[in-house]
Design goal:
It is a single chain. A 6-stranded mixed beta sheet has the order 3-4-2-1-5-6. Strands 9-8-12-13-7-14 form a 6-stranded parallel beta sheet. The longest helix is centred in the middle third of the chain and has 27 residues, at 291-317. 40% of the residues lie in helices and 16% in strands. Strand 15 (477-478), helix 21 and strand 16 (504-505) form a beta-alpha-beta unit. Among the domains are: 138-222 and 415-424 and 440-478, P-loop containing nucleotide triphosphate hydrolases (Rossmann fold); 261-341, no CATH class; 483-626, Rossmann fold, CATH 3.40.50.300. Bound molecules: adenosine-5'-triphosphate.
Length: 710
């Protein structure tokens, strides 16, 4: 059971949301009419006083037409209406399908398909992912509802909704698959940052019993993560051959031929001959049990053999046998013998010993790893003990050892894994052990793999996850990144994953991306000015910098009086967050300012992939600030390094030069304007709908409303 800080924080956050959301949240968000029937769709079922079902829950099969109907294929619906509520007030009604036959909406012109989605996408981001139950799209809905058996891989470009699909699928399965309530479900995010970002969604969906953790927390041991190692070490430790190395390392610690064993009982010296000892150890080795469990069995067997030898000895000497088998089992000699023949280890003890002992490494790695790979494992003993820190790759070696030493971990009926493209084979094995049925949802984008494990297909990873069957589903529509920004980012795809196509963005975006040069001495002030104007536009903003520059920018932003959260520490509570490029994955902000893309490209073997990820984090605006020459993919941009005020602009087809100043944002509705808009929307409701809205308003105003939880 993970007991780390990030998991505890995620749990606390979930509990807060559940507690605070009592009686709030969008109770009803959809309506689907057929000629015969009218269904209201909400977060959960709602009954009236007469126990009549008034609102069905979104995960009920009956809600399917609401999600799958389109103008071209209305699936029997004559009205599909989305009710948008903010802070307990209905602020907008969006009708996407309105048939002439729909008697109560005679004055309405059907709006363009997707208006509800676009309205949802326009909402500002606040550092926490939200649920999207009111606007799930047909291609997403199909994946959310796919069968729990086997593994579903969800491949999709940045912002195609993989994470929301995975989370809604978890909620859907939790509601619809009875057996999963017993066997449990797990959601795994790659980092504490991403866990913090996504952890509100399931509680918002009313799901409180799905465990959410970050990947290294799968291992419940005492090891502290905090070591960053060379690429080669991570790669070697993450490879599946490491499992064989560890198996051998443990096997090397078993003494298969301990020789004659002599012990004393009272005044008698008894010997167990070497051949008997070999048989005892061979019997232990043949058992299909974890190493530390075998030791208990071995203690029994040894005690029996020792007792038999003692009885034979006493018979031979013509003396009475006074010691019982249990007396012999407790003899120090037996414990010492066990420590020599079959020592008990914790995973940390064993791995620490292995890394620090050249001869042991040589024997365990022989024929499995190359000499260089073996050298990457060696850790000088002085680095090993106090203040010990382990790398993430080490954690999965410890997890493998924990399995060999103490047997299988706690398992789950279904596991959802976010950013699965980065999993090492050893991490995949660790997940596989936790879900013996192979029922996984793996969410990822092969183009966004940035660690040591970059793949062209999902096949190799699936070998290690080993599900009984799998399907790969693709998401193709981009919901996050505006089209012109996605076009600019997609230029990187040609370098990193030529086989993949960028998603088709449905987001127009406010502005095209801007690329600005600034001499080194004014880069900071330019950054501060840009961030200031984005914040003045109420855009949540991330400043993404190369990891090695993080501390410098942290200090400089503080000096320049730009309040900002520390994205490295997972603090997303400020309007502006400083984010190291390597931790930007999976996150989302209204605006992103990317500083020195060339540095990001050069910083790691897959720097260009890190850049692609960083460029695809914004929902509205991407700004690039640079002093160094731009990396390829920006080569047709006009650059004026000598000119202080220069603005690099995109010169290719697809968008126009970027103006220096963003156009003013539309003024938010005043309360009065909002009220009159709602009143006018209400005026278009049928009498039946009005009754329902009146009941809804009454219920929202009364905290003790009676909800029937599914
Ligand atoms: N059907 C939808 N309705 C409303 N918003 C949606 C929908 N699908 C996705 N989104 C929004 O699009 C954004 C991107 O979604 P998400 O983070 O799940 O994408 P992703 O594919 O996991 O991205 P990445 O590859 O960067 O990890 C989020 O803000 C999400 O809420």
């Amino acid at each position: 059971m993970p007991n780390d800080k990030a998991s505890a924080a995620a749990l606390r956050r979930a509990l807060d949301i559940i507690r605070d959301s009592k009686g709030t949240g969008t109770l009803i968000f959809g309506r689907a009419d057929t000629p015969e029937d009218r269904l209201y769709i909400g977060r959960q079922r709602v009954y009236d006083e007469g126990r009549d079902l008034k609102v069905i829950s979104w995960h009920a099969p009956a809600a399917a037409p609401f999600y799958t109907a389109t103008v071209d294929d209305p699936r029997g619906l004559v009205l599909k209406r989305t009710i948008i509520e903010e802070e307990r007030r209905v602020v907008r009604l969006i009708d996407e399908i309105v048939a002439a036959a729909s008697s109560d909406a005679p004055d309405l012109t059907p709006s363009t398909f997707g208006d509800a989605l676009l309205a949802e996408l326009e909402r500002s981001r606040d550092g926490a992912m939200r649920d999207v139950i009111a606007t799930i799209q047909a291609e997403q809905y199909r994946i959310i509802r796919s069968a729990a058996e086997g593994t579903v891989v969800v491949q999709g470009g940045p912002g195609t909704g993989k994470t929301v699909v995975g989370l809604h699928r978890a909620a859907w399965l939790a509601y619809n698959v009875e057996s999963l309530r017993r066997t449990g479900m797990l959601v795994v995010a790659p980092t504490p940052n991403l866990l913090t970002y996504i952890s509100a969604v399931l509680p918002l969906l009313g799901v409180s019993d799905v465990m959410q953790i970050h990947l290294p927390a799968l291992y419940g041991g005492s090891a502290v993560v905090g070591r960053v190692e060379r690429w080669e070490s991570d790669r070697t430790k993450g490879d599946a051959s490491m499992a064989e190395v560890l198996r051998r390392a443990l096997s090397d610690r078993v003494d298969r031929d301990p020789g004659d064993v002599t012990f004393t009982v009272g005044a008698d010296r008894i010997t167990i001959p070497a051949a008997s000892m070999r048989d005892v150890v061979a019997d232990a080795l043949s058992r299909d049990l974890a190493h530390n469990d075998v030791r208990d069995v071995l203690r029994q067997t040894l005690a029996q053999v020792a007792h038999s030898s003692y009885l034979a000895h006493q018979r031979e000497m013509g003396r009475p046998a006074v010691a019982t088998a249990s007396t012999i089992r407790r003899l120090n000699t037996i414990t010492n013998l066990l420590d020599r023949v079959w020592p008990r280890f914790t995973p940390e003890e064993l791995l620490r010993g292995l890394y620090g002992t050249q001869s042991w490494l040589v024997s365990a790695c022989d024929g499995v790893l190359t000499v260089d790979q073996r050298a990457a494992l060696y850790r000088a003993p002085e680095n090993a003990l106090s203040e010990e820190r382990w790398s993430v790759a080490d954690i999965f070696c410890l997890d493998e050892l924990s399995h060999l030493l103490d047997g299988p971990p706690v398992s789950y009926g279904h596991i959802v894994v976010d950013e699965a493209q980065d999993l090492s084979p050893m991490q995949a094995r660790s997940l596989s052990r936790r879900c013996p049925t192979g029922s996984f949802t793996l969410l990822g984008d092969l183009a966004q793999a940035t660690g040591p494990w970059v793949r062209d297909t999902w096949d190799e990873l699936l070998l290690h996850v080993a599900p009984p069957s799998h399907i790969v589903e693709e998401l193709s529509i981009g919901y996050r990144v505006p089209a012109t920004t996605l076009d600019l980012a997609a230029r990187q795809l040609g370098y990193i994953a030529p086989g993949l196509t960028a998603p088709r963005s449905i987001r127009p975006g406010r502005n095209d991306p801007s690329v600005r040069h600034a001499p080194a001495e004014v880069l900071g002030s330019r950054l501060a000015g840009l961030v200031g104007s984005l914040l003045a536009d109420s855009l949540s903003t991330a400043v993404v910098v190369d990891d090695t520059d993080f501390d410098r920018w942290d200090a400089e932003l503080t000096t320049l009086d730009v309040p900002h959260g520390d994205g490295r520490a997972g603090d997303f509570s400020s309007a502006c967050t400083l984010v190291p490029a390597s931790l930007a994955k999976g996150l989302e902000f209204d605006a992103v300012v990317l500083v020195e893309p060339a540095k990001i490209v050069e910083s790691s073997p897959h720097g260009r992939r890190v850049l692609y990820v960083a460029m695809t984090r914004c929902t509205h605006e991407l700004h690039v600030l640079h002093t160094l020459p731009l990396p390829s993919g920006f080569s047709d941009l006009i650059d004026h390094p000598a000119d202080d005020d220069a603005t690099s602009v995109v010169d290719g087809p697809g968008w126009d030069p970027v103006p220096d100043a963003a156009p003013p944002a539309p003024a938010p509705d005043s309360d009065d304007a909002l009220r009159s808009r709602v009143m006018s929307d209400l005026g278009r409701l049928s009498p039946h709908d009005l009754t329902l809205v009146a009941a809804l308003v009454e219920r929202l105003a009364t905290p003790t409303e009676r909800l029937d939880h599914p």
